[in-house]
Design a protein that fits this description.
Blueprint: E1 2-5, E2 8-12, H1 13-18, H2 28-47, E3 51-55, H3 61-68, E4 79-82, H4 85-90, H5 96-101, E5 123-126, H6 132-145
Parallel strand pairs: 2-3, 4-5
Antiparallel strand pairs: 1-2
Helix pairs in contact: 2-3
Length: about 150
């Protein structure tokens, strides 16, 4: 979890898997439960007045729709960080893709388990084309456009 502003937090999938979701693996059922827990946690933060950005691989459309249904339209923005599988594998510092390719990790998204692309995200960021700085700028621009943050909050 990283703090972006005084009332804004970024939750990273790896960090959440070390605590709240440490009992879950990579099976389809565990991925569904992982996203369900994240959605419920984020709803609690929103109810407390905290802006939450979540960075998770959510491979199934129905799970993203379920989480979206917890929020009003203005409180949920789906941002699709689009990237080729090849680029994901070259960026894999933990070696998870390599382990999935050898069969050590079963049901791994993009290798032995499907990834369903978002149908109508509010923003698509092509992270294999854009720089990190340009990608962040697009997210911040969307948050400003929706009046979720102001310039003095970043």
């Amino acid at each position: 979890m990283h703090q972006l502003g005084s009332r804004t937090f970024v939750f990273d999938g790896d960090n959440v898997r070390h605590g709240l979701c440490s009992d879950l693996g990579f099976s389809d059922e565990d991925r569904v439960e992982n996203i369900r827990r994240i959605g419920e946690m984020t709803k609690l933060f929103l109810d407390a007045g905290v802006i939450s950005l979540t960075a998770f691989i959510s491979p199934f459309q129905k799970d993203r729709e379920r989480v979206r249904s917890l929020f009003s339209n203005e409180d949920f923005l789906e941002i699709y960080c689009k990237c080729t599988l090849e680029t994901c594998e070259t960026r894999d510092v933990k070696g998870l893709y390599k382990r999935a390719r050898t069969g050590e990790i079963k049901e791994f998204t993009g290798i032995s388990s499907p990834y369903e692309e978002p149908e109508n995200p509010e923003l698509i960021i092509e992270t294999d084309i854009l720089s990190l700085e340009d990608s962040v700028k697009k997210v911040l621009d969307l948050l400003r456009e929706r009046r979720i943050i102001r310039d003095d909050q970043v």
